[in-house]
Amino acid sequence: MPDKEPLTKERLASFLTGLGAWDVRVADPHTGFEHAEPERHPLYIFPNCRSVVVFIVPRPVWSNNTAISLVISTEDTTDPSRLSLSNRLFYTPGHRTIAICDLLRDRVWFAGSDLLRQYGFEVREGSIQEKLCCVEAGLSVYGRSGVTLHPELGNRFIPGVFLSDAEFEPDSRLADFAPCENCRACVLACPAYAYDPAKMYPENWNRSKCSVKRTELAAKGIYCHECFRVCPAGTLDDRDLLTTREVVSAANLSDQVSKKRNRDAQQPNRTRLR
Ligand code: SF4
Ligand code: SF4
């Protein structure tokens, strides 16, 4: 144990935010989660789980993985038209920045896990539904386009989740936050008309229309995720969020980014979409 003081939720949150987490909350695995896929429920992954600790790191404007942007080739892929769809998506500028944000998130996750383990707690990960965990922990709400929306960051964040047998007081779902109430921006921006404006996600979204349009655009070297890009939810302007340079500098990740990019480039079928 690192010192005699108990590991409270506040201490854990302060530790994680010191490393780069923007917000940290806790969900009770025994309450809610009624929409979890059975094999992705926290208690299925870790039956002794007492707390689902959820944190988010900001995603800067260049990582909005969504702007309609030209695919760029790399030194070893001189002809983008020969790349698989997933690689075309990966090689867009936004996706390269997502790799940096992923590393920041991983850094927070590994340090947090170490701390919990130093206190004798077990930590598990698995194919957890991260967006659902954010909603259950009161970090965000589901938006019309299927993204989840944080009151300050909107959809510009990446979540991380610890399943632990440490018991922390759970937070409740967000109340009085309804960013989609008077907004249809994602519906109107979609070039595939994949959203039914009269319904809410997931009933409103036609996956097939979306996939067909994205494939069609990708064949022209264009990456579409306009529904994400146009979302005005959140109080911060993109310019207020971390820049790529600041993220890299804060986490001192330049070398790791190169290594991760090289590793990922050797896994051609790996998709970068979340
Ligand atoms: S990714 Fe593009 S096509 Fe798919 S739902 Fe979003 S805006 Fe529509
Ligand atoms: S664009 Fe508007 S309607 Fe769509 S998810 Fe964002 S806030 Fe909700």
Summarize the structure.
This protein has 274 residues and is an alpha+beta fold. It is built from 10 helices and 8 strands.
Task: Provide structural commentary.
This protein is an alpha+beta fold. It is 35% helix and 11% strand. The chain is built from ten helices and eight strands. The strands form three sheets. Strands 1-2-7-4 form a four-stranded antiparallel β-sheet, with helices on both faces. A two-stranded antiparallel ribbon has the order 3-8. Strand 5 and strand 6 form a beta hairpin. The longest helix is centred in the middle third of the chain and has 26 residues. The chain is elongated and about 60 Å long. One iron/sulfur cluster binds next to helix 7 and helix 8.
